[in-house]
Amino acid sequence: MKSTSHPLHLTHLQLQTLIINRLYTLFHSIALTTLIYYRLSSIFALFHTTQPFIPHILIFIAEFVLSFIWLMSQSFLWRPVTRTVFPDRLSNDDQLPPIDVFICTADPQKEPPLGVMNTVVSTMALNYPPEKLCVYLSDDGGCLVTLEAMQEAWKFAKLWVPFCKKYDVKTICPSAYFDGREVDDDEVNMDCDEKAWIKENCELFAHKVTMISESESCKPNKNHSAFIEVMVDESMHDQIRHMPLLVYVSREKRPSHPHHFKAGALNALLRVSSVISNSPYILGLDCDMYCNDKNSARQAMCFHLDPNLSSSLAFVQFPQKFHNISKHDIYESELRCTFKTLWQGMDGIKGPCLSGTCYYLKREALYQSPSSLQELKLEELRDSFGSSNEFIKSLHMKSTPKLGCVKDLSDELLQETKLLASCEYENETKWGKEVGFRYFSVVGDFFTSFNMHCVGWVSILYMPSRPSFLGSGTTSLNDVMIQGTRWTAGLIEVAISRFSPVIYGSSRMSILQRFCYVWLAMFPLAFISLWILATIPQLSLLNGVTIYPKVRLRLKTPTHLSLYTCLYYRAYNT
Question: Which member of 100, 139, 140, 286 is catalytic?
Answer without folding.
Answer: 140
